[in-house]
Design brief:
The chain is of the alpha+beta class. The protein has one domain. The protein is built from four helices and ten strands; from the N terminus they run H-H-E-H-E-H-E-E-E-E-E-E-E-E. The strands form two sheets. Strands 5-4-3-2-1-10 form a six-stranded mixed sheet. Strands 6, 7, 8 and 9 form a four-stranded antiparallel sheet that branches. The longest helix is centred in the first third of the chain and has 54 residues.
Length: 195
């Protein structure tokens, strides 16, 4: 029978070098796993942001198109007193809707609705004014600041060709010039125009 000292010496175990190698290889494997996780998480976040941009780009274009098609009158922005001064980054026109005599007679307060869009920093806002008469409002009367989307880079390429009755909508989404997406649409206008 072996004594305890001989049993300890005959045992086979890990040497210090083997132990350091195992820790080093394990650390590299863990580092690779965390790197892959970080890369895939960043890719998912980027894809979600792109999907959100696509969704809001289409939403903005479609919503403005819907409002323009249902308008009774499209008014050039300089026909509204101080609109281009108070809201210099406006879309260039005001949409007027006549809700009709029946709407007005049924105890609803305002028959005519005026609204437009402007860019305040990166926030794209819809502003509106409701009135009992068809007289054009002043810019100071517009209120109801409804934020549409807070990552709009530019609306500068939106142009309304009054003679051709064509509206070229262009909305560029993004925070800076490096990573932007532009959404465009062309609409033929059947509405009355005041320019």
């Amino acid at each position: 029978m072996l004594n305890s000292k001989q049993q300890f010496q005959n045992r086979k175990g890990f040497s210090l070098i083997e132990f350091v190698l195992v820790i080093g290889i394990s650390s590299m494997i863990i580092l690779i796993i965390f790197s892959l996780y970080n890369i895939s998480t960043n890719a998912l976040i980027y894809a979600d942001e792109k999907n959100e941009t696509l969704l809001y780009g289409r939403y903005i274009i479609d919503y403005i198109k819907y409002e323009v098609r249902n308008a009774d009158l499209i008014i050039k922005s300089d026909k509204i007193v101080d609109l281009d001064i108070r809201y210099p980054n406006n879309i260039g026109f005001v949409i007027m809707v006549d809700r009709g005599e029946k709407y007005y007679e049924n105890n609803h307060e305002k028959r005519y609705g005026y609204h437009t869009y402007h860019l305040k920093g990166n926030l794209f806002e819809r502003i509106a004014y409701n009135s009992n008469n068809a007289k054009y409002p002043k810019a100071s009367q517009f209120s109801g600041y409804n934020g549409v989307y807070d990552k709009v880079y530019s609306i500068d390429d939106t142009i309304l060709h009054y003679d051709n009755k064509l509206l070229l909508l262009s909305v560029t989404l993004g925070i800076d010039e490096k990573d932007t997406s532009t959404y465009k649409s062309t609409i033929y206008l059947y509405n009355k125009l005041d320019y």
